[in-house]
Amino acid sequence: MKQHMRQRISLLMLIFILLSGVISCASPERKSTLMSTNQTKTLYIAAGTKVYCVRETDGSFCWTHDFKEPVDQIYATSQNVFVQTTAPALYALASKDGLLQWRHPLTDLLPSQLFVQGDLVFIGAYPTGFMALTAHNGAPRWQTSVPITSNSIGFIGSEGDSIYGYSDGTIYALRADDGHIQWKKEQPYTLGEDLLLMNGNLLIPDINGEKVIELRASTGAVGATFPGNQVVSSQDFLFLSRTASQKRQTSQELYALHRSDQQELWKKTLNANEQIRFRKGMLGERYLYVVRIDRNMKTVLQAVDLKTGDNAWTWTPPSERPDIDPFSVYYSNEHLYISTHNSSVPYPENEKSLLQALDSQGGVRWKQALNERILRVVLPV
Fold first, then answer.
1. What is the DSSP letter of 350?
2. Distance between CA 312 and CA 302 in Å, rounded?
3. In the sheet that 153-159 helps form, which strands lie side by side, from edge to edge?
4. Do 205 and 195 form a contact (C-beta atoms < 8 A)?
5. DSSP helix/strand/coil, 353
6. Cis omega before residue 348 (within 30°)?
7. What is the value of pTM for the model shown?
8. Which letter does DSSP use for residue 208 in this model?
9. Distance separating alpha carbons of residues 332 and 374, to the nearest angstrom
10. Contact of 306 with 286, CB cutoff 8 Å
11. Pairing of β 153-159 and β 140-144
């Protein structure tokens, strides 16, 4: 009897030990899965009437939100994805699951560069001018009327307590918390696609004047002026393109300047039948990524060495989707995200896109096909 009891006790102890081992092994597994889910990096795609959340690691979809109306602008943070549609309206989606948080109707559609700072969303809208909404619920915070006669209005960035915007070629500095205009520069610029705020200076491309104007962010005073129509900036260098005439032929030049003294670092002249396009999202740690377009509208992507201006490598799009759109090229964390389509085929095939992730040497990491034309590729800021 005693021996039988000892056997039962031994058996119970063995079961307890085994169960303890299972529990102690299972808990870290659950924790690891949860952490990897929370740490998954994502990018957001505006395409047609939809916004897609895509995992950076493999291109798989996290979620999709269909607005049933064309998407016009998109801006992403770690908490929300803000979307302007042609309805017109501004929406806020939760970044983690794409659920609608709020909707704010707009009186008229103007393609406006959105900007978010803290708990404020800044947007330009006709006939209001500049306006700010509370990011977490969409409640209006302030409105500042400015003249609007064309379809060019939006925000550039922020520094300190100021937010910087533009409308009809005029540059504005506004107080972020109430919209009070601190200064404005009324020169009639014909603005390029990317206006930059860097190191206390605004860089304003004037595409008709073939120059880039530097404005002091604190006062609006004009600083240096550079020949060019496109510009991106790192901490130490400016990278610009300009039109050059040689032997009765017009061509583009890509060149780099030291920010400190405007001394030229390098210069590269393109063939007369080629053009290049680049934007602020195409500047990496080692390369400036540019889209080269020949006279037949064939596109390739080139990685330009920041120190020398030499071509490090060239990437040619797949033949079924050969057209690169510079607005859907975005660099982040040693990887380049790029969208291609085929404009030479009939509808609806010409609306289909192929999103691809390239590594630092131009190798394709993954591909993701979409049935809509990709408008923008953005990462949370």
1. G
2. 8
3. 112-113, 153-159, 162-167, 170-175, 181-185
4. yes
5. strand
6. yes
7. 0.84
8. T
9. 18
10. yes
11. unpaired
Q: Which residues contact 110 (CB under 8 A, 6 or more apart)?
A: 124, 125, 126, 148, 151, 152, 153
**Residue 89 half-sphere exposure toward CB, CA atoms < 13 A:** 15
Q: Give the strand pairing for 249-258 and 237-246.
A: antiparallel
Q: Does pLDDT of 95 surpass 90?
A: yes
pLDDT of residue 126: 75
Q: 103 vs 43, 50, 80, 90, CA distance in Å?
A: 22, 16, 13, 6
pLDDT at 327: 83
In this structure, the number of other CB atoms found within 10 A of the CB of residue 324 comes to: 23
Considering only residues 321 and 39, tell me which one the structure prediction assigns the higher pLDDT. Answer: 321
CA dist., res. 364 & res. 157, Å (int)? 32
Instruction: List, in order of start, the domains of the chain with CATH numbers.
Output: 191-272 (2.40.10.480)
Structural contact between residues 354 and 59, judged by C-beta atoms closer than 8 angstroms: no
Q: Which amino acid is at 347?
A: Y
Q: How far apart are CA 168 and CA 189, in angstroms?
A: 8
Q: Starting at the edge strand that comes first in sequence, how are the strands of the sheet with 335-341 ordered?
A: 323-332, 335-341, 353-358, 364-370
Measure the N-to-C terminal CA separation of the chain; round to a whole number of Å.
72
pLDDT tens across 187-198, in order?
Answer: 766 776 678 998
User: Which pLDDT tens digit goes with each residue over 144-163?
Assistant: 999 887 667 889 999 999 99
DSSP 8-state assignment for residue 102: E
User: Helices in the chain by DSSP H: which ranges?
Assistant: 2-38
Rounded CA-CA distance 255/275 in Å is: 14
Q: Is 251 exposed, middle or buried (0-12, 13-18, 19+ CB in 10 A)?
A: middle
Is residue 301 pLDDT above 60, yes or no? yes
Let me know: does 74 contact 46? Beta carbons within 8 Å: yes
C-alpha distances in angstroms, 343 versus 276, 347, 373? Answer: 19, 9, 10
| DSSP letter string, 167-178 | ETTEEEEEETTT
